[in-house]
Design goal:
guanosine tetraphosphate binding, elongation factor, Elongation Factor Tu (Ef-tu), domain 3, elongated, 17 helices, 7-stranded mixed β-sheet, 34 strands, Elongation factor G, about 700 residues, Rossmann fold, about 25% helix, alpha+beta, protein biosynthesis
Length: about 700
């Protein structure tokens, strides 16, 4: 039980000033529809659009319209009763988790949209855990109440495992023939009936709902009293608590992360939106609390946290940032983390796909800043000096990759520039250049993540590309030794070429690499030519008998001869190459495949299915344990061949309602023989030795 709250709340008075609200929730829960309803209710737009019609402020990008889902953060502003709010509507699919992670440091409060769907509880937990770990206050908006037939108490019990703190009902529905036609506010003890896309109307509490209201209100007060001694005493002595104390406790305990209040409604019909706006106005903390959460002391100069980066075709780069301190206007100068100064070239108010000029901003505002070169999502910018980096961006490890190349060779530079912009906009995308194969590889968080990236390359940047599975870095080694002598001799007029070497080849233990020695005595090969012999050996090892780099091998130069006129570095290098190519086939070459250590995170109820997937992919299960800090989740440890990781994430998410993920790292090389090896060699135009 907590200490007494003076005047019923830790917050004192209601926060004022511009506030930034994040909207989160599982895929399909109705986040974009809720944003649209909020904008319509506040008069920011004339009419509420729908996702189906493709006329919402959010999800305005062509890719979002095409897939009828959020694929990036949507920004919109609204005013309610004289107070300004910026809403950041985040994608719900786990593929686009990176965008959600980027905006979290700058928000004051999270509205988490959920629905009465048991299959989406793990996805809800993923989102709530991110917010909980960052200490971000949050409330839950239970959407689609018009489609819910279950008792709200049962729905709350179903959703509770997703939250580390109590979910506290602030309302209960008024039912009419199984349909929620209104609600009773448990703090106000007042009843309302819904009106389509309009404010609810106050009515008397129906007689048949009074008993439910009393029970639900007492349950709410009991939970609040766990952190308020005075309220607990009132309940024990059967004294009606002051209404102001109840309101202060709800807001104060939410801001402290002790509870997660629950509101409900139907975003599609605008039901419950007014009550949500009232809660945001009275209970959402402001920028001062966000500064404190980030460990930032207030300063006179500007401090900006960059939440999102966008590249527009006409206006160029736009950095969406939260102004945590000070004031800003167009042409002001900011300082990057590396100490370099950049000048703002364009100062904007962002609403969906539109950006309009604004004159200035004060602490708490969320603004679009034009053409800040070298500034990335996650950076904290200072005024005349660098600011402490408040929330460095930590992206999850990619789980799916593609080899990508331009269809036309002349577009290579254009593709490189476009990929760089995509990665600036979405830091969860990673572009690498494979040294072994020369491939350009694009990695991301899932199938849809990469699909959207490719659609942007085509639609936004006009690039035609070709994609395929990334090449697996197979290796080969030897199981036996051999001794071989080779002579490179060539005469074509003038100085000829002469190099003669005898070498011993033997296998090394796995992971020992390459060792070269020489036992030359008596000057049969001059010392200046020995490095050339080694260079020739290494050249031959780049493409072994099976067509792959050869590893874990020792080569000893034992004998040879030279010609005083015709010997040269090149001649001995060629002799060494010839010796290796003649000797390696006799050393029983064998194919090696990379094996990764993989950690799979999944809901506990899916662990058995995950184990079966691992086994079907030639994986070796090492065991599983409870996932630290995650109630109801496991971590499965396994060794899986790299080739079997292709498409693994698609199968894992199919088995876990879209929430499983994994991390991997190279562990060792393992021999690959039999039919599996034959298939690999056939794909590479080779055959077993």
């Amino acid at each position: 039980m907590g200490a007494d709250r003076v005047n019923g709340g830790a917050a004192g008075g209601r926060e004022t000033g511009p506030r930034c609200i994040g909207i989160f929730g599982p895929f399909g829960s109705g986040k974009t529809t809720l944003l649209e309803a909020v904008l319509a209710r506040t008069g920011a737009i004339a009419r509420q659009g729908t996702v189906g019609a493709g006329n919402t402020v959010g999800d305005g990008a062509p890719e979002a319209r095409a897939h009828a889902m959020s694929v990036e953060v949507n920004v919109a502003e609204a005013e309610h009763l004289g107070e300004r709010f910026t809403f950041l509507d985040c994608p719900g699919a786990v593929d686009f988790l990176g965008d959600m992670v980027g905006v979290m440091p700058g928000i004051d409060l999270a509205v988490v949209v959920a629905e009465a769907d048991e299959k989406k509880v793990p996805a809800l937990q993923v989102i709530l855990k991110q917010l909980e770990d960052r200490g971000i206050p949050r409330l839950l908006f239970l959407n689609k109440i018009d489609r819910t037939s279950s008792r709200l108490r049962d729905v709350l019990a179903m959703l509770q495992p997703a939250s580390a703190v109590p979910l506290v009902l602030r309302q209960i529905p008024i039912w009419n023939e199984g349909i929620a036609t209104g609600f009773i506010d448990l703090a106000l003890e007042r009843a309302y009936v819904y009106r389509e896309l309009a404010e609810s109307q106050v009515i008397n509490i129906p007689n048949e709902a009074m008993a439910r209201e009393v029970e639900a209100r007492f349950s709410m007060l009991e939970t609040l009293a766990d952190h308020d001694d005075v309220l607990m005493e009132s309940l024990l002595e059967d004294i009606a608590p002051e209404r102001e104390r109840i309101f202060a406790d709800i807001g104060g305990e939410m801001r402290e992360g002790l509870i997660c209040p629950v509101l409900f409604g139907s975003a599609e019909h605008g039901n419950g939106v007014g009550r949500l706006l009232k809660a945001l106005r009275h209970d959402a903390p402001g920028v001062a609390a966000t500064r404190a959460r980030l460990g930032l002391e207030e300063t006179d100069g500007p401090v900006v946290q960059i939440l999102k980066t966008v590249h527009t075709l006409h206006a160029g780069k736009l950095s969406v940032g939260r102004l945590l301190c000070g004031r800003l206007s167009d042409a002001d100068t900011l300082t990057r983390p590396d100490g370099e100064q950049v000048r703002i070239s364009g100062f904007y108010r962002v609403n969906g796909q539109q950006a309009s000029k604004r004159p200035q901003a004060e602490a708490g505002d969320t603004v679009g800043l034009g053409k800040l070169d070298g500034v990335n999502t996650g950076d904290t910018l200072g005024g005349s000096a660098p600011a402490p980096q408040l929330a460095p961006l930590e992206m999850p490890q990619p789980v799916l990759g593609l080899a990508i190349s331009p269809r036309e060779r002349r577009d290579e530079v254009k593709l490189s520039a476009a990929l760089a912009k995509l990665c600036e906009e979405d830091p969860a995308l990673v572009v690498t250049q494979a040294q072994d194969t020369g491939e350009t590889r694009l990695d991301g968080q899932g199938e849809m993540h990469l699909r959207v990236a490719l659609e942007r390359l085509t639609g936004k940047y006009g690039l035609a590309v070709e994609t395929g599975d990334p090449a697996i870095p197979y290796r080969e080694t030897i199981r036996a030794g051999a001794s071989v002598r080779a002579r490179h001799k060539k005469q074509s007029g003038g100085h000829g070429q002469f190099g003669d070497v005898a070498i011993d080849i033997r296998p090394l233990g796995r992971g020992e690499g390459f060792v070269f020695n020489d036992t030359i005595t008596g000057g049969v090969i001059p010392k200046q030519y020995i490095p050339s012999v080694r260079a020739g050996v290494e050249e031959a090892l780049k493409t072994g008998t099976l067509g792959f780099p050869t590893v874990d091998i020792a080569v000893t130069l034992t004998d040879g001869s030279y010609h005083s006129v015709d010997s040269s570095d090149q001649a001995f290098r060629m002799a060494a190459i010839q010796a290796m190519r003649e000797g390696l086939p006799d050393c029983r070459p064998v194919l090696l495949e990379p094996v990764h250590q993989v950690t799979i995170a999944c809901p506990s109820e899916a662990t058995a299915r995950i184990n079966a997937i691992v086994s079907a992919r030639r994986g070796q299960l090492l065991g599983f344990d409870a996932r630290s800090g995650w109630s109801g989740w496991d971590e499965v440890q396994a060794l899986i061949p790299a080739t079997e990781l292709s498409g693994l994430i698609v199968e894992l998410r199919s088995a876990t309602a879209g929430v499983a993920t994994y991390s991997s790292r190279f562990d060792h090389l393992a021999e690959l023989t039999g039919k599996a090896a034959d298939l690999v060699l056939a794909r590479h135009g080779r055959q077993a030795a």
